[in-house]
Structure formats: C-alpha cells, structure tokens
Design goal:
There is one protein chain. With 471 residues, the chain is mainly α. Helix content is 17%, strand content 3%. Strands 1-3-2 form a three-stranded antiparallel sheet. The radius of gyration is 62 Å and the shape is extended.
Length: 471
C-alpha cells in the first residue's frame, strides 16, 4: 500500500499549501515537521569555516628605545635676571576749595501742591452684637489640674567664652617679608603719530604719460554678404516609404484567445470547514451583577446645633483707630540753582564740515545732442522675405484592393487545450480519501480503493460521491 500524500503533494497548479501552524494544537510529541519548501529546494554544502580576518589587532605597540628628557623649551630657554617691580606711591587726597552746589533741576522746577488726605470709599464694617457677658474661661482652664513638678537642673558643661588677658602680638609672614617700594613710570619711546608735510609741489608725471603715443585706428573690415542662388534642378521628394509601401486593404485580426469557461461542479456543496471541525462551543454563564444595599435613613430628627452656635456670645467691637501720624510734606522755598560743572566748563565750538576731496575729470563732457545712430542701423538694408514651399507629403492613407495577409506563426502553430482543474481546489480531492491531519496542519489523503473506502467508513470519515461511484 502506498503511503498517504499531503495536500501540498496532490496540488498540480502550485498554489495550494497546507497551513503550517506555528504551534501544535493536537498533540505534544517530540517529532518535528521536516516537510518544507526550504528543505526540498535548499542545496546542502560542505562545512566551510569563515575566512580569517587579516586586520591587525588594536594593541598598543611599545617603543624599545630610551626616552630623552630634552624638550624645545629646555633647549631654547635662557634664564634672565628678573628685577623687582618698584612700588607706586599713591597720591594724597586734596579736597577741592569752596562749597558744593547741591541744587538739582527737580528742586528748581518742582511746584509744591497742597494734598488732602484720601477719603476711604470702603464702608465701615457693622457687626451685630448682643448685650450678654462673654465667658472667657475655656474648658481647658476649668478642667486642667496643675501638678507640682520640680525643675531639673541642666547637666550641660560650662562653654562660656573667656577673652584672653594678654595682647596678641604674633606677626604674619606677609608682614615680615613685605616691604614697600617706590614705582617710577617708564619713559615712552613711541614716536608721535603726526603726518609730515612736504614743502615741494607734487610731481604727477609718470612713465605712461611720457612714453604713450596716440595712434589712429584703421576702419574695421566688413565682410560682404553672398547672394542666394537657387538650384536649377527640380526637387525629388520621393522616399522609400512612397516607393515600397502598397496600400492593401486587410481584415481585422481574429483573436485566438480561448474562451473563459467557469469551473463548476454539480456535486453538493459540503460546508464542513476545519474551523467547524476543530472548534467546540463552550457553555458560558452570565456574569453576576452586584446589587447595592438599599439606603435606610436613621430614625428621629437630626440635631444641627454645634458647640460654636450654642456657646458663642457676640460682643460690640469698635474698629481700631490708627495711631500713626500722617506724613507732612516737606517744603523748600529757596530758589533752585541748576548750574553744574559741565555747563560752566564746557563751551560749544562752531564746527564746519569738511568738504569731500574729489578728483577732477580728465575727459571733458560732451556738449551737443546725443545721436543714437548705430552701425547696425546705418548699414542694415531690409529685404522682402519669400516663405519656403513645404515638401512634406499630404497625410492621406493609400488604399489597395488586395486582401491583407494577417497570418502569424502563433496562429498557425497554436493548439487550444482544455484547462485541467487542480484536485486541491475541492474540500476533499476527487479520487482521494481523507486519512488524518498532522499536528503541524498537514492534511493527508490516500488514493481511493475499495479497501480504503471501507477503512474510511470504519474510521467515520467522509467519502465523496465521486469515490463511491469509482469504487
């Protein structure tokens, strides 16, 4: 007996594949599925090791020689004797003679105005008071009992500061080593930045002005224009298309494409699917709904009185009067002196802007009217242009009475064939009996024989009508 075949092996069109499930849903065996397209088509090669890398290792390369401690700074540096910088004496401050004028423009120009105090717009607070007496003894003072508690003596050590009786006479290293020195400003050897004017007149004669000789230019040579000479021979407008093309009438090409025939089966449609066979409905119970307890109000009336409402006694309280005196404005009737040292010492000078130094023009400006005549306008002669005659043939199709030969090699050699239907398109391929389904999803079928039909009926599997007729 031949072994059963998978749906992938029965397919003839190459479009049908079994669903390769990623997990096993039927069994938990240790056998792995080796029937894959990669295993069938992958060529096996010998064990080839990867190529060795020729890249040098990234390691530190030590130098075997001895290091010299000589640097450019050590070889080129020459020590010099450094003299101490003299100390610069600070000049004594000498106050200026006379009195300082402390007048400002604000004091001189400001006019004092009489300002009245601002009246409050906000109304006074009114509190409802009662004539009862306020009980100021709290419950804490009435219920509290004072206990006789003895005070503990502190055990903290005496850390009071006692200043020394002798005077501190230790001097610092700065006071011992530092001695003041006089600093004298250095004399500047920088020359004074002043331009030296020459007494001699400027000599503007150059070698170009002495050696240059002006020459007259010759008139420019103008090339004469050649006249057009037409050809005496007639124009030949015959092309290879006009010589070789023959306008023959032809029939429309016939299509040799086979007619579209719909693949139909007269067998009864079996609505059994893998999902319907594998899925088992489970009975689901409805979720329980939690019912909240009903609210039962307490019996009796609610007492809304508080301790504040019950024990509080209102009193008449007057607003506090301000004790702070009002600020009095300071007045000064002395005239303002607006003179400053800047106004007294600074004198404005009349500044005249220096005119720009422009170079005189060497070429004189033209005095007459501009003549905009160019050489092109002066020498151009207009001519009458005759349009060229078009030699393009007319776009008229050429007709012929002979029939068109539309025969091709494809039409003569093509043989129509019947389209074979792939047996894997049916839910159960005709001529095969379903055996079992693998854990990976592969469906195995066996060719229909009388013994196979009996075994399938005994197992409870479905046998198609085509198989029953064949058997």
């Amino acid at each position: 007996m031949k072994p059963p075949q998978c749906l992938c092996q029965i397919c003839t069109c190459g479009r049908h594949r079994c669903p390769h499930n990623p997990t096993r849903i039927y069994d938990h065996g240790g056998d792995s599925c080796l029937m894959t397209e990669y295993v069938d088509k992958y060529p096996q090669y010998a064990n080839i090791p990867p190529p060795q890398s020729l890249k040098p290792k990234h390691e530190f390369q030590k130098h075997g020689g001895k290091m010299e401690g000589i640097t450019t700074f050590r070889s080129d540096y020459l020590p010099y004797d450094v003299a101490h910088r003299p100390v610069r004496l600070q000049e004594e401050y000498k106050p200026a003679a006379g009195e300082m004028d402390l007048g400002t423009t604000y004091r001189r120009d400001y006019n004092v105005h009489k300002i009245q105090p601002v009246t409050l717009v906000r109304p006074l607070e009114r509190k409802l008071t009662k004539g009862g007496k306020l009980n100021t003894i709290p419950t804490y003072q009435a219920d509290y009992r004072a206990w006789e508690i003895q005070r503990r003596e502190p055990h903290k050590a005496d850390s009071t500061y006692h200043p020394p009786t002798e005077k501190f006479g230790n001097s610092t290293t700065f006071q011992d080593d530092f001695f003041p020195k006089e600093l004298a400003p250095r004399k500047s050897f920088k020359p004074i930045a002043m331009t030296k004017l020459s007494d001699q007149p400027f000599n503007g004669v150059t070698s170009h002005r002495n050696d240059y000789v002006a020459h007259l230019l010759e008139p420019k040579w103008v090339r004469s224009k050649e006249e057009y000479r037409p050809s005496s021979q007639p124009f030949e407008d015959i092309t290879t298309h006009r010589c070789d093309f023959r306008g023959l009438l032809g029939e429309l090409p016939k299509s040799f494409k086979p007619e579209y025939t719909k693949a139909e089966s007269k067998a009864h449609f079996n609505g059994v699917t893998e999902f319907r066979e594998s899925f088992q409905p489970w009975a689901l119970s409805l979720p329980e709904v939690h019912k909240a307890k009903e609210y039962i109000p307490p019996a009796g009336n609610m007492d809304l009185n508080t301790t504040s409402q019950r024990d509080y006694v209102e009193h008449e309280v007057h607003p506090v009067v301000l004790v702070k005196p009002l600020e009095a404005s300071r007045k000064n009737n002395a005239p303002f002196q607006g003179n400053t040292t800047m106004k007294d010492d600074f004198q404005a000078w009349d500044m005249i802007k220096q005119e720009m130094i422009k170079r005189s023009q060497e070429m004189p400006k033209p005095s007459g009217k501009f003549d905009d005549m160019t050489t092109f306008r002066a020498h151009y002669v207009p001519h009458s242009v005759v349009p060229a005659q078009s030699c393009k043939p007319l776009n008229v199709p050429l007709s012929c009475a002979a029939p068109f030969e539309a025969g091709t090699m494809y039409r003569t050699e093509y043989t129509p064939k019947m389209q074979a239907i792939c047996p894997a398109t049916y839910p159960s391929p005709p001529g095969y009996v379903f055996v079992s389904t693998d854990s990976r999803g592969h469906k195995f079928f066996r060719k229909a024989t009388p013994d196979a039909n009996k075994i399938a009926l005994a197992n409870g599997s479905h046998v198609p009508k085509e198989v029953e007729v064949v058997s």
